[in-house]
Design a protein that fits this description.
The complex is a heterodimer. Chain A is mainly alpha-helical. Chain A is 71% helix and 2% strand. In chain A, strand 1 and strand 2 (40-41) form a beta hairpin. In chain A, helix 4 packs antiparallel against helix 20, helix 6 crosses helix 10 (189-199) and helix 10 packs antiparallel against helix 11. The longest helix of chain A has 33 residues, at 383-415. Chain B contains 19 helices and two strands. By secondary structure, chain B is mainly α. Helix content of chain B is 77%, strand content 1%. Chain B has a single domain (65-410), classed as Na+/H+ antiporter like fold, CATH 1.20.1530. Chains A and B meet through helix 1, strand 1, strand 2, helix 2 and helix 3 of A and helix 1, helix 6, helix 8, helix 10 and helix 11 of B.
Chain lengths: 504, 415
């Protein structure tokens, strides 16, 4: 441990020094240049050229910090996230700059598809069929519970937060509270998958956690679109927000605003701020979700066909497939998360044996993907907002945690989950990452002209950073306490199993 | 509509490429050449790129430059790993003369002709403007394709020996090619007015920093590999991280990412233990990924609308290769016994003529660093010369003097 710490420190310090030196010595690129034929062209920006260095630091640094985290019994992804937060633009802008993060979109798109493929392969149709009532019960209790509790809490707390002004009207407080509550329902499937992969967990708790998180994410896509549209219409004077002024009649699903970092995608519904009816929004969402479903089936079929016929060069095939998913989704405004998830589910459940080798390859590629993905998520966390609004974020976070705990317990009990799983299931839903960050940005965009916009945004960021740090640790503890260790595998409970059966 | 068309094209390509019938087509020598050289991937790149259905716009590619530079860094890294002390000591004894003959003669002949033709084409005489293109074309001319399986028609010990010389010599020449390209790539800098200038002190310091940084990263990498242990995924993270970091920093400094990563690879190869050698076998599997990616990228970035001079340059390089390379090979291997069979003779001729795949990497790197029209035309020149010389074995097989047995297919070889 001591030796490892020393080596890690040496490597990290050298990396950071080299990167800083590199940034200082960067060849300046002018606005225009001419080639040998005398034709003008635009050279790359320095931000773009520095992205490679930043990417390398994120990969090596998060790997090292992840190992240190594992050595002190923390989840590796907490290490990745912490490293991202430490060297991110809000903490150390000399190493990773804000403008570099957008260029990592390609890696992020690949990561989303890879993580979703893994998630799909973890969801067994038999299990979902048997535990449909459990999943539905836990999910519904949780979504409704959080919406209610956080909306009420926010309604009463918001006037006391000094940096949030302009929420005097009770109607405004109600709608903004509801928007905050919607974001509070989000949790991160990517974190759940990463922890499950880390612990090689296949237990009931693992499978229920994954199924509920993914289902919740799908529900959230629709819920957020509807609520932000209604809130936008109610709060913004004249019903047309700044986002609507750009003629943005799109409800296209955006990939983390172009910088996705958790495999969670949300609709850019704020662009409809009050200009379009709910029917329009819902119809577009249905088309996009339906399209994603169909695209996922087609992608799954093509991948299965490849495995059946050639089954060669699998790393190439996996990487190219994930890029293809990202490209297709961007072109057709589909959700890569759903497309890859469905493709993974289809292959794993219909062609279990043939697809085994593919998922082994995906797993081999997963470590670098997780390192970059979560460290980039950490980079996006705004530490300053945590400093200024930390105590309020802690209070809201505590209320959210308590609600998640209560609703998961009640939902589990109603569905007949064994008490041990019921007791610790809530820990899976605390983590927040990419989806929440994007939603926060959308909220800020929607209410950009309102005085409370920045305050609300900072409060959201502070809460997300907190959940981002605490969530993975809690889930790891929860899994271990629920009897889940490395490689543990329990038979899923049948729908008729009772709590007593579980205990027995 | 264009998007749907592009997706249709992609899906059709994917389905065709995965069909067993298509795989069997490799038995046809011409198709085998197309597939082995990556030319089909280049064609696919053209089809889906800005010159085709424009599924992927050029700007999007150039925005992904740092990540694509990583692919170039990976190539440099893998080549650097070949430069293990004990391997080099053995190889140099056998193929040293061949490597020296190729490096010196090719740089002189191809460098000279490229200099002259680029000068005539661009009407620029100063070293600052010519160093880059001449460096690219002369580095691209070094060596030959290390793939010899498709040329091995007989199993004689002589043929096997020639194939070995081609592979070992090609690898060694590639190391020199990366160094040569790295030095010339480093030479010019952009002035405040956007023009290329020669600033020797800046170039020297940039080169020095790149070399020191690469070696330092090699040392740090060795430390990191020790912690990664034997687990493949841990080693993958470390390798990827090192390559991305070194290539990224070199790109940021305006130096060659391939040279920087190669130096890091050399240090790691000579300091790491057996665990790493096992991992090498795993990362070599990624060669396919990088090769296909590079070929696709070349197709996406190339400029189809090239002028007369570019075409003249490409054809001149083809003629030079066909004439000079077999001669260089003969000069470099004086002790090699005379070929007795037609198949062996074809191996001696076609083997050294085919272009080194690294040429594509150099040209793609050149465009990624600066996506000017001229650079894209140079990429097209390299692609054209590569395609044409790759067909030399096929053409030779049509000449009665060089006619040989039907080409063996990979499937048959495995069997």
């Amino acid at each position: 441990m001591k030796g490892m710490l020393r080596d890690a420190t040496v490597i990290l310090a050298s990396l950071l020094l080299l990167a800083i030196a590199g940034h200082q010595l960067t060849v300046s690129s002018g606005e225009q240049a001419v080639d040998q034929l005398g034709q003008a062209f635009a050279p790359h920006s320095s931000g773009l050229m520095a992205t490679g260095t930043g990417f390398g630091i994120l990969l090596l640094g998060s790997w090292l910090v992840g190992r240190i985290a594992a050595a002190v019994k923390l989840p590796k992804i907490t290490g990745y996230l912490l490293f991202g937060i430490i060297i991110g633009p809000s903490t150390a802008p000399v190493i990773i700059r804000e403008d570099q993060l957008q260029y990592l979109k390609l890696v992020n798109d690949l990561a989303i598809a890879l993580i979703a493929l893994t998630a799909g392969s973890e969801i067994q149709i038999d299990f979902v069929r048997k535990t449909l009532s459990t999943i539905a019960s836990v999910m519904l209790f949780q979504v409704l519970g959080i919406l209610l509790v956080i909306a009420v809490a926010a309604y009463f707390l918001l006037p006391f937060i000094p940096s949030i002004e302009g929420l005097d009207s009770s109607s405004h407080r109600f709608w903004v509270g509801l928007v905050l509550a919607t974001i509070a329902t989000a949790s991160s499937p990517a974190v759940v998958i990463a922890i499950l992969t880390d612990l090689k967990s296949r237990s009931t708790m693992a499978q229920v956690s994954l199924a509920v998180t993914v289902s919740k994410d799908l529900i959230l896509v629709i819920l957020f679109a509807v609520i932000i549209t209604l809130a936008g219409a109610a709060v913004l004077s004249g019903g047309a927000g700044p986002a609507a002024e750009d003629g943005g009649a799109t409800t296209e699903l955006v990939a983390d605003g172009g910088h996705g970092d958790s495999g969670d995608e949300v609709p850019d519904a704020s662009h409809d701020g009050g200009e379009h009816g709910d029917g329009d929004v819902t119809m577009k969402l249905v088309i996009e979700l339906g399209g994603s479903l169909i695209a996922g089936l087609i992608v799954g079929l093509i991948m299965a066909l490849y495995l059946h016929r050639l089954n060669a060069h699998l790393p190439i095939f996996v990487v190219f497939s994930c890029f293809a998913i990202a490209l297709i989704c961007e072109s057709l405004h589909l959700e890569p998360l759903i497309v890859a998830l469905i493709a993974g589910m289809l292959m794993k459940n219909l062609w279990r044996q043939q697809s085994e080798v593919l998922f082994d390859t995906v797993e081999e590629l997963s470590l670098p993907v997780y390192c970059v993905f979560f460290s980039v998520a950490g980079c996006k966390a705004d530490v300053m907002s945590l400093v200024t609004l930390g105590h309020w974020a802690v209070l809201l976070g505590a209320i959210r945690c308590a609600t998640i705990w209560g609703t998961a317990k009640v939902g589990g009990k109603v569905a007949g989950l064994d008490p041990r799983t019921s007791k610790w299931l809530w820990t899976a839903f605390v983590s927040q990452a990419g989806v929440s960050l994007v939603l926060a940005t959308r909220v800020k965009d929607t209410f950009a002209d309102e005085v409370f916009a920045d305050g609300i945004y900072n409060l959201l960021l502070a809460s997300i950073v907190l959940n981002e740090i605490c969530g993975p640790m809690l889930f790891k503890i929860g899994l271990i306490r629920a009897g889940d260790g490395e490689g543990s595998s329990q038979e899923p409970p049948t729908s008729g199993e009772t709590a007593a059966d579980g205990e027995a | 509509m264009e998007t749907f068309l592009a997706i249709l094209v992609l899906m059709t390509l994917a389905l065709v490429a995965t069909s067993p019938r298509f795989y069997r087509m490799r038995r046809i020598p011409a198709v085998s050449v197309l597939m082995t050289g990556g030319w089909l991937a280049i064609a696919a790149g053209i089809a889906i790129g800005p010159e085709g259905v424009a599924l992927i716009p050029r700007e999007a590619l150039l925005n992904a430059t740092p990540l694509l530079m990583m692919a170039l860094g990976w190539i440099g890294f893998v080549i650097g790993l070949q430069a293990r002390r004990e391997v080099l000591a053995n190889v140099i004894r056998d193929v040293g003369r061949l490597v020296a003959a190729d490096v010196l003669t090719s740089l002189l002949i191809f460098g000279g002709v490229s200099w002259l033709l680029v000068w005539l084409w661009t009407d620029r005489t100063s070293l600052a403007w010519l160093a880059g293109p001449v460096g690219l074309l002369s580095a691209a001319s070094l060596g030959w394709s290390m793939e010899t399986r498709s040329l091995l028609r007989d199993r004689s010990s002589r043929s096997q020996h020639v194939a070995l010389l081609l592979r070992a010599g090609g690898t060694l020449v590639s190391i020199f090619a990366i160094m040569w390209f790295g030095v010339l790539y480093d030479l010019p800098s952009r002035g405040a007015d956007g023009a290329l200038v020669l600033d020797w002190s800046q170039s020297a310091s940039r080169f020095g920093i790149t070399v020191v940084m690469s070696i330092l990263m090699g040392l740090l990498g060795q430390l990191a590999f020790r912690h990664a242990g034997r687990e493949r995924e841990q080693q993958l993270v470390v390798s990827l991280g090192l390559v991305v970091f070194v290539a990224g920093l070199a790109t940021e400094l305006g130096a060659s990412p391939m040279l920087a990563s190669m130096l890091t690879g050399v240090v790691i190869a000579n300091l790491s233990g057996k665990e790493f050698q096992r991992f090498e076998r795993f990362i070599i599997e990624a060669e396919h990924v990088v090769a296909v990616l590079l070929a696709l990228l070349a197709g996406l970035l190339m400029e189809l609308n090239i002028g007369t001079w570019a075409l003249v340059l490409a054809l001149a390089l083809v003629v030079l290769r066909v004439l000079a390379k077999p001669l260089i090979f003969r000069i470099g291997t004086p002790k090699l016994e005379e070929a007795s069979g037609l198949e062996a003779r074809q191996l001696d001729v076609a083997g050294p003529v085919r272009q080194n795949p690294l040429a594509l990497a150099f040209a793609v790197g050149f465009v990624l660093a600066e996506g000017s029209q001229f650079n894209r035309q140079l990429l097209t020149v390299v692609i054209i010369s590569g395609v044409v010389v790759d067909f030399v074995p096929v053409v030779l097989s049509l000449i009665p003097r060089f006619r040989q047995l039907p080409a063996s297919t990979p499937t048959e070889e495995v069997a």
